[in-house]
Design brief:
It comes from Nesterenkonia massiliensis. By secondary structure, this protein is α/β, with parallel strands linked by helices. Helices cover about 40% and strands about 15% of the residues. It is globular, with a radius of gyration of 21 Å. It binds 4'-deoxy-4'-aminopyridoxal-5'-phosphate. The site of 4'-deoxy-4'-aminopyridoxal-5'-phosphate has 15 residues, from helix 6.
Length: about 425
């Protein structure tokens, strides 16, 4: 293809367009179409921002109607009917049935904004500054969120350390017996560890960018109990693993925990629109009016689609049940594909899953072979050694099978 404006004008910081050089023009369900009409099966889903696929017809119609009727689009944090409807729906369909009592804050448009708000709130509430996060964690690219992110390539340009934060090894804790948390216990007590007692621990239940390491539910429960005993706040970053990705609305539900703060973004709008929430226990609402604000805190277009998406998918158990069956199908399909490569393992949980390969070059080759066969999927992990699959949650079982078959061909081509 001739050199074009993307190549000459956009910064070299681009990444996805280098792996997938086509120009994508249209999208529907689990498919994207290039300018020349070539169809790609999308197992990338906007890095988890499109859990319900592209352009869901009912959400699209609602959006068109809202705009056609001059609905307010931008409103800072003013009250609008669209925001009211979203808050009421969240309360009725998500929070109440799960016995979760949270105040809701709109911290800005994206995932990194909700993490920033969570870190700031934890520091304000506790009066302590130190935040613990995990190795290979990913929490965003603004400086606070970056300080708790464990990816040295992403941190390098900003200088380290950024703020007062330390990393706890994640892998040691998610596999095998429940740890006794000896090191962590010492740090939390601030007794002889030399590490300041933290304000909070921030955790992803599945490390989406860090290699699809999945925390066990009993481990999460033990962590939550430990933090409670030491009066340290637990922040669950559900930006990627939330909104149904792991099979339940929140990724921590099966652990039976009630995190102090929860970060939500990516798929919450239901339509790939920028939207983020920070949820926190009511007693943590110590903000002063205007203390943490921003211009794009309440996108009414996103409120419109978000409220309807919650109704469409979360008003009864049927969506979750079907999803559970497809999760099983995906797991079995991945085990079969993984059997082709010695020592490779299936990683992750639910529809946030993939295959770890012992040779770090393999995953990139598999993704390239998949692209040649019109399947979009990305890689994950500190050395990009994991092939990551994130199909839309409402994909049909047939399309899921199609993707698995292409993946199998791609793995055989990349390793054969
Ligand atoms: N937290 C997690 C767990 C994420 O996966 C991401 C994005 N991949 C972020 C935070 C940051 O979100 P955003 O890119 O929307 O700022």
């Amino acid at each position: 293809m001739a050199t074009d404006i993307f190549e000459t004008r956009e910064s070299q910081v681009r990444s996805y367009c280098m792996n997938w050089p086509a120009v994508f023009e249209k999208a529907s369900g689990c498919y994207q179409y290039t300018e020349d009409g070539t169809r790609y099966l999308d197992f990338f889903s906007g890095a988890g921002a499109l859990n319900y696929g592209h352009n869901h017809p009912e959400l699209r119609d609602l959006l068109v109607e809202y705009v056609a009727n001059d609905g307010v689009t931008h409103s800072m944090d003013m009250k609008t009917p669209a925001k009211r409807r979203f808050l009421e729906t969240l309360e009725q369909l998500i929070l109440k049935p799960r016995n979760l009592d949270y105040k809701v804050m709109f911290p800005g448009p994206t995932g990194t904004n909700t993490v920033e708000a969570a870190l700031k709130l934890a520091r304000k509430v506790t009066g302590r500054q130190h935040i613990l996060s995990f190795t290979n964690a990913f929490h965003g690219m603004t400086l606070g969120a970056l300080s708790v992110t464990g990816n040295s390539m992403k941190r390098r340009g900003a200088g380290i350390p950024l703020t007062n934060s330390s990393k706890i090894p994640y892998d040691d804790y998610f596999d095998g017996d429940i740890p006794d948390f000896i090191w962590l216990e010492k740090v939390l007590e601030d007794s002889g560890s030399g590490v300041d007692k933290p304000a909070a621990v921030i955790v992803e239940t599945v490390q989406g960018e860090g290699g699809l390491n999945a925390a066990r539910m009993d481990w999460l429960k033990a962590l939550a109990d430990l933090l409670k005993r030491h009066n340290i706040l637990l922040i669950v970053d559900d930006v990627q693993a939330g909104c149904g990705r792991t099979g339940k609305f929140f990724s921590f539900e099966e652990a039976g925990i009630y995190p102090d703060i929860v970060c939500v973004s990516k798929s919450i709008s239901g339509y790939g629109l920028a939207m983020a929430l920070t949820l926190f226990k009511p007693e943590l609402d110590v903000w002063e009016p205007g203390e943490h604000n921003g211009t794009f805190r309440g996108n009414n277009l996103a409120f419109v689609t978000a409220a309807r998406a919650l109704e469409l998918f979360w008003s009864d158990d049927s969506f979750q049940q079907e999803l559970g069956e497809k999760i099983q199908q995906l797991r079995e399909g991945l085990e079969k594909v993984s059997a082709h490569v010695k020592d490779s393992t299936v990683r992750g949980r639910g529809f946030l899953t993939g295959i770890w390969f012992p040779n770090p070059d393999t995953a990139g080759k598999v993704a390239a072979e998949a692209y040649k066969r019109n399947l979009l999927l990305e890689t994950s992990g500190p050395e990009d050694e994991v092939v990551k699959l994130m199909p839309p949650l409402n994909i049909s079982s047939e399309d899921l099978q199609k993707g698995l078959s292409i993946l199998e061909e791609a793995v055989l081509a990349a390793t054969g």
